[in-house]
Amino acid sequence: MAPGVAASAPAAVAERALTGLPAGAVGSATVVHQADLSTGGDYADSAEPLPAGAVVVVGVEVLFPDGGRVAVTETVPVEAS
After folding, report:
1. Position 43 in a domain
2. Residues 9, 11, 13, 15: what is their CA dihedral angle, to the nearest 10 degrees?
3. Count of domains observed in the chain
4. 5: exposed, middle or buried (C-beta count within 10 Å: 0-12, 13-18, 19+)?
């Protein structure tokens, strides 16, 4: 993840990549700033540019029509590529 990008931008890209889900399944993606890992989103605005050296958590969740749920997360550094 590159510095200066708002957290909402990579989340939108990840959501567009959720293809091939079964009918009725709903996928979503989030990017959580390191400042919000313990607050659930009380500190950083998703439109705020991410600074170099920050750490974010990228989460992807899929809800299935039968009530099943799958969620995965990955911790990602914000650094120039």
Report:
1. yes
2. -150
3. 1
4. middle
Range of the domain at 63: 8-77
Q: From 73, 78, 70, select the one nearest 35 (Cα to Cα).
A: 78
Domain assignment present for residue 71? The answer is yes
DSSP string, 23-63: TT-EEEEEEEEGGGTTTSSSS--TTSBPPTT-EEEEEEEEE
The answer to whether residue 28 is domain-embedded is yes
Which residue, among 38, 29, 31, 28, has the nearest Cα to 55 in the 3D structure? 31
Write the pLDDT tens digit of every residue in 20-68.
899 999 999 888 887 777 776 666 777 888 888 888 888 899 999 999 9
Please compute Rg for the chain using Cα positions: 14
